[in-house]
Design brief:
Elements: H1 22-25, E1 33-34, H2 46-56, H3 70-82, E2 91-94, H4 97-108, E3 114-117, E4 134-137, E5 141-142, E6 148-149, H5 152-160, E7 164-170, H6 182-194, E8 198-202, H7 219-222, E9 230-235, E10 248-251, H8 255-265, H9 274-286, H10 288-309, E11 316-317, E12 325-329, H11 338-343, E13 347-348, E14 350-351, E15 360-364, H12 369-388
Parallel strand pairs: 1-13, 3-4, 3-7, 7-8, 8-9
Antiparallel strand pairs: 2-10, 5-6, 9-10, 11-12, 12-15, 14-15
């Protein structure tokens, strides 16, 4: 396929100073490059920029209904990308996947219920529940090939004990980058069905499968016979760098669950803002060429990271199929906290401990190659400093 967006588009270094950037202002006034929060340093696709400018031509930004064309755009995208034929009625619009997780806990788990999550995992999975509910952490297992996946034996043992009403999934997985196979998803859903557990699958990174050999299967597509207990959370925010605009959606085939979810949102979650709707519609209808080039660029960035650390015994870069977040085992550095250690050398990473895995760091490589290279050079300098000692 020819790429209408040149790859060198992503080489452009854009200053984010004076934009109140969460990512960059964390280290404001310090010589520390930020590779932490999942926010890309790439300009939005031009069609999205144009859509925002067009919406701003109207001087009022009031409460806004879902644009008429948007549900159809989502339906067409999911059909083309995943062979998933949804009914637009299944869509529930929300201003973010994090609040979508929280609403799920209110809708599908009662006071006293247990909710299962699988660390290492995005930290909001640990704190989206109600105070009257309990989070059970069932760790993923890491194979000899360093691929992370669900421990289905441990999951079944926990479900046999009772009390679990909800399972929160992250698929593709953040921070490990795993794209689960169709068989893995089917096996998990069979367990959920056998023990009457609702499954909420956060698939915000589903459109960021960067390994050309990997294929993402939405939970509802991999195991369609269990759709009545499946809720899927999606968004264009990560793929098209729209995180600050706040537009996501839940896909809920079961009408009773859909009503419960809407009730959980009522009076607690704000509506999606008009600019977010405009950007999202443009992303799903006109953002394809930009995304295709992005995936290629991100895969090249990831391969570059792997190459740079290939002969560094103290660092192990785990295999990754999706996301732009490298999962790195830094235990062999033998330092108290790898994140703090690298930060002292000018590299701001995410601490694995916040995902439930101390000794690891997560590196956001959605940035121009020059920025990434400078960060890797600093990390190598940090490692060399330990060898000298």
């Amino acid at each position: 396929m020819s790429q209408s967006v040149p790859l060198n588009t992503f080489d452009t270094v854009l200053s984010r100073l004076d934009t109140d950037s969460l990512k960059w202002d964390k280290y404001k006034g310090q010589d520390i490059l930020p590779f932490w929060v999942a926010d890309m340093d790439f300009a939005m696709a031009q069609p999205i920029q144009d859509a925002l400018k067009q919406r701003l031509e109207h001087p009022i930004q009031g409460y806004t209904l879902t644009p008429d064309a948007l549900p159809g755009a989502i339906k067409a995208f999911l059909s083309n990308e995943y062979n998933w034929d949804i009914d637009p009625e299944w869509l529930v619009w929300i201003p973010g996947v994090v609040c979508g997780l929280s609403a799920s806990c209110r809708a599908f788990a009662k006071p006293g219920d247990h909710i299962v999550v699988n660390p290492p995992i995005y930290h909001h999975f640990f704190d989206s529940h109600e105070s009257s509910q309990t989070i059970d952490r069932l760790p993923l297992r890491c194979g000899n090939d360093h691929r992370w996946t669900w421990n289905l034996t441990a999951l079944e043992e926990r479900l046999q004990q009772g009390g679990v009403s909800l399972l929160l999934l992250c698929s593709p997985h953040n921070p490990t980058g795993t794209v689960f196979t169709q068989q893995e998803v089917q096996s998990l859903m069979k367990l959920a069905d056998a023990y009457d557990v609702t499954v909420v699958s956060d698939e915000i990174h589903c459109d960021l499968v960067i390994n050309p050999k990997a294929t993402h299967y939405p939970t509802a597509v991999a195991a369609p016979e269990f759709n009545e207990r499946t809720v899927t959370l999606m968004s264009g925010s990560k793929t098209w760098n729209l995180a600050g605009l706040n537009c996501s959606f839940a896909i809920i085939p079961d009408a009773e669950k859909r009503d419960a979810y809407k009730n959980a949102l009522h009076s607690t979650v704000p509506a999606v803002p008009p600019l977010a709707f405009a950007a999202t519609e443009a992303a799903y209808t006109q953002g394809g060429p930009w995304r295709e080039s992005l995936l290629t660029y991100l895969w090249q960035n990831y391969e570059h990271i792997v190459q740079r650390f290939a002969d560094v015994a103290e660092i192990t870069v785990h295999p990754l199929d999706a996301t732009y977040l490298a999962w790195i085992d830094a235990n062999n550095l033998n330092v108290e906290n790898p994140q703090v250690f690298f930060e002292s050398f000018g590299v701001g990473l995410s601490d694995g401990d916040q995902f439930g895995q101390p000794g690891f760091v997560r590196l956001n490589f959605a940035c121009p190659r020059a920025t990434l290279e400078e960060g890797l050079n600093r990390m190598m300098t940090a490692v060399e400093s330990l060898r000298v000692q």
